[in-house]
Amino acid sequence: EAGEHESFMRKEILEQPTTAQAVLRGRLDERFGTAHLGGLDMDARDLRAVRRVKILGCGSAYYVGQMGAALIEELARIPADAEAASEFRYRDPVIEPDTLYVAVSQSGETIDTLLAVQEVRRKGGRCVGLVNVVGSAIARECDGGIYLHAGPEVAVASTKALTNMFLGFALLALQLGRVRDLSIADGKRLVAGLERLPAQIEEVLAGEADLVEVAKELAQARSLFFIGRVRGFPVAREGAQKFKEISYRHAEAYQTSELKHGPLALIDPEVPTVAVVPLDELTDRNVGALHEIDARQGPLVVITHDEVDLGEIGARRVVVPRNEPELDPILLTIPLQLLAYHAAQHLGHDIDKPRNLAKSVTVE
Ligand code: BG6
How remote is the CA of residue 100 from the centroid of ligand 1, in Å? Predict the structure, then answer.
């Protein structure tokens, strides 16, 4: 039962400070600035032998897989990317022995992800799982893995499981990094960042009331853009996914850098843009793009950090706390969950069971 909450989705959003602690518990090593992931069943030599990482998942799990790939490339300096598991087996993929395949799934039952795992294993590859449901089909099919400990997730739109997927990738990236060239100082910096995260998630959730009006405004639009760059792009993709799933509005994610190569033609007062603009090496370029949108009277909602100066534009600012730059994407994601939620709530939709969608798709 959703209990005092009007929906499971809201209950699950608000649980995140607690569930985030659960995935980290017992896995962080402050002394050596690393993570311990016994369930992976890989020793330091196995971890060092990994030359490439390929992440496979569907829907939100695919988008968080893109965030995970960025974490692994940044912290471990191993080439990594994510692919929609639903496409993977149909292109007769080359499976390499020194690639680590990672299947990501809340339910552990998504057929497309399961068949991708089987494709990897049939061809002799090693596949580990980032799975929430213990003993599920994908967990059983994998060589080992990281359980997400988010507890049961009922709402179709994934929130707390997705956050724990991100944290699972951070732990994996840390462990892969620390058997390579990631310094102990950087390792300790990230361990401390991970320990700070649950309280910072709580801080973002405390700002919920300020997002309700913004969400109502966005709910009026028939079509919206979600934009971000590099670390912010999968955040924008996930934000657009949540928004379309439960508000039934057309929401399209774009790299901010690609705006001038097409979508700018659609910007006008009727088409709002939700922009992800963290304080990082791309802030100035991101802000420049916001000015392009503003010049065309495109309404703007900017998910950003306090230190970011947007200049003279008419934008709604949504400020989140900063962590370490590598871990910031998950804090930038939380307000997008709340925006989608309150837009759908305002429109009177069945939030936990959006039309045409199922929590896990177990038939092809
Ligand atoms: C889709 C759901 O069908 O499956 C998404 O609508 C979900 O919300 C995706 O992200 C993947 O599910 P799972 O259980 O494999 O993480």
Answer: 22
